Automatic annotation (TrEMBL):
Residues 140-194 form the UPF0029 domain. It comes from the Bacteria. Transmembrane segments: none annotated. The lineage of its organism: Bacteria, Bacillati, Actinomycetota, Actinomycetes, Kitasatosporales. Belongs to the IMPACT family. Residues 20-124 form the Impact N-terminal domain. This is YigZ family protein. It comes from Streptomyces maoxianensis. NCBIfam families: IMPACT_YIGZ. Pfam families: DUF1949 (PF09186), Impact_N (PF01205).
Amino acid sequence: MQEQYRTVAREGVHETEINRSRFICALAPAATEEEAQAFVARIRKEHPTATHNCFAYVIGADASVQKASDDGEPGGTAGVPMLQMLMRREVRYAVAVVTRYYGGVKLGAGGLIRAYGGAVGEALDALGTLTRQRFRLATVTVDHQRAGKLENDLRATGRDVREVRYAEAVTIEIGLPDADVDAFRGWLADSTAGTARLELGGEAYGDA
């Protein structure tokens, strides 16, 4: 798994005009290919009279799914430069749709490549990106007596506390960067006089 990746901070739209053509870039985070395709379909529906609705998306922290469409523009002049911009900026789990309303001036292949790639780059700058970090999920089991203080200490030291469950004992689910696991074990033993139990689970991504 990748240690970290970037994604779009939020859904949004950024518009630019080049030689009287309007280029409207809609960006959104997408957890799956189905989400990305649904977003593309929604934008197309919003702009039924547009000359083109070109798209690109990248799914997977390792960019395992990459798709692009020129939607009638000359081959390789729209979807591919859009995809290249997402890849160059290391953006994952994201979808971009650039809607073009033709303004009467032909841009040529080079102009189109710059326009479509640039529209995505400008939209990323305008909307911002988030970095997501790989975490190891871990469960800490502790007695009721120590649970409150331990939870406070975890939050005070900036740990990613995901869930707290009270039963016979208290279980606290946290996210840990892999590199911190050994140091955390030592800290936990010191904080609870060796009474807490740590179990490591699977991996997930969280805000860095």
